[in-house]
Amino acid sequence: MTSTPRAGIPTAVFPVAGLGTRFLPATRAVPKELLPVVDRPLVQYAVHEAVEAGAKTLVFVISHGKESVAEHFRPDPTLEASLQAAGKQALVERLHDILPAGVNVEVAYQPEPLGLGHAVLCAREHVDENAFFSVLLPDDMVLNDGPGALQQMADVHARTGGGVVGVERVDPAMTGSYGIAEVDGGEPPRITSLVEKPAPEDAPSNLGVIGRYILDGRIFSRLQDLGAGAGGEIQLTDAIAGMLGEHPVYAGTLNGTRYDCGNRAGMLKANIDYALANPDLREGLLAHLRGLDLNG
């Protein structure tokens, strides 16, 4: 069920303009963010996580042709009336669960794929630059039994008053695939440096940044003046790194299991584990898995 919005981080930005080419041909006509994990689109999990952490405004940064991502969260009175007339109240409730009352959906366009930092910059007109806001990449899913990943980070923000970046320990050989954070010995640990996709020998740690951020609205000024970084793109990591001396940013080590749903293997693992976490599906799926001949 979707959590009721509460005081916390009121604006959440979802950069979802990518083409999802790793999932072709499935994503030829359907955005990757609308591919299902069990019975919900991938992006809906991230939205529920943001609402749990207090989001009342959802900003989807899309490219032209991906309007259906935002449309998924808009009311559909015709469908609802049809289900009501058919007496399918349980399905009506599932529609209501997509987005609670009082949460607004806004859209910004990213005309060119110029990087995550550029995508966040495209949301600028929808965000209060004098407040903190969150950024969630739906590709990263975090499964646990307690508060969601963003709520865990919101708790760190409430304690410290600073920004928070979600991190997890990664294989040192894989640092070239992540932004890497160096931290002090505090509790919570404060980030002292950030490097985008360093070679293993140049990495300051093995704390990899994952797709969850709570950021000071003043980061937009940094992004505006930022040139291209790693990969020729405007990197959000570079903008955060440029603020560390003025505005504290903390590392949020998250409780739970992360799934990288930006690739097929990660998406399959998420579908299996989220299904196993569903009491209506668990036993049937376990019976199927036990019956597989994995040596065949």
UniProtKB/TrEMBL annotation:
Gene3D superfamilies noted in UniProt: Spore Coat Polysaccharide Biosynthesis Protein SpsA, Chain A
UniProt entry tagged with the keyword Cell cycle: no
Broad class of enzyme this protein falls into: transferase
Domain of life, source organism: Bacteria
Domain Nucleotidyl transferase per the UniProt entry, residue ranges: 17-274
Record EC number: 2.7.7.9
Keyword line: Nucleotidyltransferase, Transferase
Pfam families: NTP_transferase
GO biological process: UDP-alpha-D-glucose metabolic process
A GO MF term: UTP:glucose-1-phosphate uridylyltransferase activity
Enzymatic reactions: alpha-D-glucose 1-phosphate + UTP + H(+) = UDP-alpha-D-glucose + diphosphate
SUPFAM superfamilies in UniProt: Nucleotide-diphospho-sugar transferases (SSF53448)
Chain's role: May play a role in stationary phase survival.
Family according to the record: Belongs to the UDPGP type 2 family.
Protein name as annotated: UTP--glucose-1-phosphate uridylyltransferase
Source species taxonomy: Bacteria, Pseudomonadati, Pseudomonadota, Gammaproteobacteria, Chromatiales
